[in-house]
Design a protein that fits this description.
Number of strands: 0
Order of helices and strands: HHHHHHHHHH
Distance between the termini: 45 Å
Structural class: mainly alpha
Helix content: 55-70%
Radius of gyration: 32 Å
Number of helices: 10
Low-confidence stretches: 223-249
């Protein structure tokens, strides 16, 4: 199999199955299958783990470009769309658990929390910003939006910052885990900034002048009435017979 076939028939199915493993574990823990358990407070555990995996997949998605450039894996971006959609999937699960199991579909409490609790406000804003990215992730939307598609999907940087910020504010005491996410995000964004600065400072490529297609036509010397002197050996000559014909580059 060539590289394209390996990504299509091997790598993508493996990544898809691996990305569903956290969901399978949470599902088994929620229903007590296969001996799994979510602990004393399963709702909080389920809510936390869904949000945690959404943030992990978001950072993994952002890591695709640096990994492609550093490891010289030009086909790696073929997996980026799937990883980004799984980030959206777990973010939606995180919000669904919060709305249905925690708030019991009490929309009044939901809107009050969004207005009064800053970390919920930030998290909800990040989820809303993820929606257009998921909707426009198809090839058809990429062609339809053109250059606007790339500008729109740069929102992922803002979303990642809001996601880490949401997690940081939610944790009241032990901030070690959100600090790790913040450090990883800082490295990923710092790498992109450094690459952009290097491109700005790089000298512009020198474009060679195009070679002449044909030499300039020879200019006839004026006729002399008497015997002309022999040509000087210092005068430059060309294959076209004219001293003024341009040299080929």
């Amino acid at each position: 199999m060539n590289v394209e076939q390996r990504y299509r028939f091997v790598y993508k199915p493996v990544v898809f199955a691996a990305s569903l493993l956290p969901f399978a574990w949470l599902l088994c823990g929620a229903f007590g299958w296969l001996g799994f358990s979510l602990g004393a407070d399963p709702v909080k555990k389920l809510e936390h783990e869904c949000g945690n995996w959404a943030l992990k997949f978001l950072l993994i998605t952002l890591a695709v470009t640096p990994l492609r450039q550093l490891a010289h894996l030009p086909h790696l971006p073929r997996l980026r769309r799937m990883l980004g959609l799984f980030a959206f999937f777990y973010a939606v699960l995180h919000f669904t658990v919060y709305l249905t199991l925690d708030l019991e579909l009490n929309f009044g409490t939901l809107f009050a929390d969004i207005a009064k609790r800053p970390y919920i406000t930030i998290g909800f804003l990040a989820l809303l910003m993820l929606i257009p990215l998921a909707v426009t992730s198809t090839n058809k939307m990429m062609r339809r939006l053109g250059r606007r598609w790339q500008k729109l999907h740069r929102l992922v940087y803002v979303i990642a910052v809001l996601g880490v910020w949401h997690f940081w504010w939610q944790v009241k005491r032990d901030v070690r885990e959100p600090l790790i996410y913040a450090a990883i995000l800082a490295v990923l964004l710092g790498y992109r900034w450094a690459r952009a600065q290097a491109k700005k400072k790089a000298p512009a490529p020198v474009v060679a002048a195009p070679a002449s297609v044909a030499a300039a036509p020879a200019t006839p010397l004026p006729a002399r009435a008497h015997c002309s002197a022999p040509p000087s050996s210092s005068a430059p000559t060309s294959t076209s017979g004219s001293a003024t014909a341009p040299e080929r580059t």
